[in-house]
Design a protein that fits this description.
By secondary structure, this protein is an alpha/beta fold. Helix content is 36%, strand content 26%. It binds N,N,N-trimethyl-histidine (AVJ).
């Protein structure tokens, strides 16, 4: 027999999303964490961003990996059998390149994508096992920003951990240092970490990459409000906010903000809140740190890795850096 259980409205008030929104909107200036972008619609919008003419990051890193996959694997495997893990696996187009190159060397490969979204992982597994014969996909559902644990590689096996796509750029310098230390602690001597970072470049290139002509990045930024309407019974009007992309030279980062067009009041039902925005008041939604050449190597060293090689593109816009767990 079905039981009718009264559902208190506060049920929504203690989710991870609710906690993040409560903390972020109460702070001055207001902010929301960038992981909130990636609901289903947001993940789709991000995939669209990666194909925009202005968003050079994905294309540039892809070209670096395409040109150097052989050398990357030779440096990593050094004759041993390799298995590849990846943080924040997403849709994994760039990864395919490395997987295919590894399978060419050793016939088969164990690939362990790590993500918070089980759905994303299952989609990736189905696609990779269909498209890359020889790949066995073992998804790990984990929020790597909290805790992070890998079983040790089998004897005679080496692990390559991928942290590409400039995902590390979303973290504050102290947080990324801490994360790299945690990654190092999960690896054994002989294992490696491949880190992709976006480099400082001409400001106008950066501004266009984060404020494209087609408005996809604006939609990606505002989708966060749509998500809060749905998940926290809020009544944000996305059209009442403007997408802003700003270069912050002091902190060497691109910032995204949502700026209130007018004074307005927004209800967040699940929190029992009414939030007042002044005209021009902003919500800071993302930092994307941009690095100097040599900086990724320094961060790797600091975390206990030995920087083994760095690959970049002819314009010097992006760097892929291999750190060995010495
Ligand atoms: C996925 C964090 C690398 O910072 O460039 C794209 C996300 N934000 N456009 C980035 C993003 C705006 C992206 N990362």
């Amino acid at each position: 027999m079905a039981l009718a259980i009264p559902v208190p409205t506060e049920l929504h008030a203690d989710t991870k999303v609710a906690r993040a929104v409560r903390a972020g909107l109460a702070s001055v200036p207001r902010r929301l964490p960038p992981w909130l972008f990636y609901d289903e619609a947001g993940s789709r919008l991000f995939d669209e961003i990666t194909e925009l003419p202005e968003y050079y990051l994905t294309r540039t890193e892809h070209s670096i990996l395409a040109r150097n996959a052989g050398e990357i694997l030779a440096l990593t495997a050094a004759g041993a059998r390799l298995r590849i893990a990846e943080l924040g696996a997403g849709s994994a187009a760039k990864t395919r390149l490395l997987l295919a190159a590894a399978i060419e060397r050793q016939g088969t490969l164990l690939y362990e994508p790590i993500d918070i979204s089980l759905t994303a992982l299952l989609v990736a597994r189905a696609r990779i096992e269909r498209e890359i014969p020889g790949a066995r996909v073992c998804p790990l559902v984990m929020d790597y920003t909290n805790g992070f644990a890998l079983d040790p590689a089998a004897p005679g096996e080496r692990r390559l951990l991928l942290y590409i796509g400039s995902s590390i750029g979303n973290f504050e310098p102290r947080e990324s240092a801490h994360l790299l230390h945690k990654l190092r602690a999960q690896l054994q001597s002989g294992d490696s970490l491949l880190l992709g970072v976006d480099l400082v470049k001409d400001e106008s290139v950066l501004l266009h990459a984060y404020d494209d002509a087609a408005g996809v990045t604006a939609a990606f930024n505002k989708n966060l409000l749509v998500r809060l309407n749905r998940e926290l019974s809020a009544d944000f009007d996305p059209a009442a906010f403007v997408h802003r992309a700003v270069w912050n030279p002091v902190h060497s980062r691109m910032e995204m903000h949502l700026e209130s067009r007018a004074a307005q009041q927004v209800r967040i039902g699940a929190l029992g809140w009414k939030v007042e925005f002044d005209a021009g008041e902003t919500i800071h939604t993302e930092n994307s740190y941009k690095f100097q050449p040599g900086q990724a190597e320094e961060m790797l060293k600091e975390a206990g890795f030995v920087p083994a090689a760095t690959w970049t593109d002819p314009r010097g816009w992006f760097a892929v850096c291999l750190g060995q767990a010495g």
